[in-house]
Amino acid sequence: MKNQDVVQAKIRVPQQGRSKASFERMLATAEQLMAERGSDDFTLNEVAKVGKVSIGSIYCRFDSKDDMVHAVQIRVLHRVDSNMLLGIAGVRERRMSFEAFVPAIVDRIAEALREFSAEMRPFMLRASNDPTVAALGKGSYNRTATAVRDAFLEHRAAILHPDPDRAVDAAFRMLYASLARYLGFGSSIEAAGEGDWTLLKADLADMILAYLHSASAGQRAA
Predict the structure, then answer these.
(1) Which of 1, 82, 159, 160 has the most C-beta neighbours closer than 10 Å?
(2) Which fold has domain 65-212?
(3) What pTM was estimated for this model as a whole?
(4) CB neighbour list of residue 61: distance below 8 Å, 6 or more residues apart
(5) Residues with Cβ < 8 Å from 97, sequence gap 6 or more?
């Protein structure tokens, strides 16, 4: 069973309209508290008070705070994935040259991550000691990585690296790690905001172009 299915199987999702509205307030409130605090430092009693729902109704839907956190993560990642994948598809549809495509795809990935950085940061911090959070996050990362790989390999003829598939994967890892550091994800929170965001995107696009255009880049590892 997929990780999301496992999480959702533990949540007692209501079917009636009023109960659905209350359930939505629970998730929205927990998400709001996590985004504001940059961590999962909240209590179910706080969710009840801020979201104007009873603590009893929360325990009718969730067995624990952990279950609520996981449900919120799925909610956040659904929006992240939708935004990211639609943005990547939009760049692909523009049918531009490789030299124009690379900065465009870098910009789209960067802006999607920045848009949801406050919502994602608490999960990045929690992932080191919560296998469910780590697995859900990895699933989202892999969906983006696959979409990016497919988009880059539409320009395979322009990639001079001797192993285009490996090179594209490496370029995406470098890109994501650099953006994650700037946005303060995980252990890189102390480095958040270092440097100029616009210059960072431009530099990353230039480095990726140079790497993929290098016919000798993979020879040392061969």
Answers:
(1) 159
(2) Tetracycline Repressor; domain 2 (1.10.357)
(3) 0.87
(4) 11, 12, 13, 14, 23, 26
(5) 158
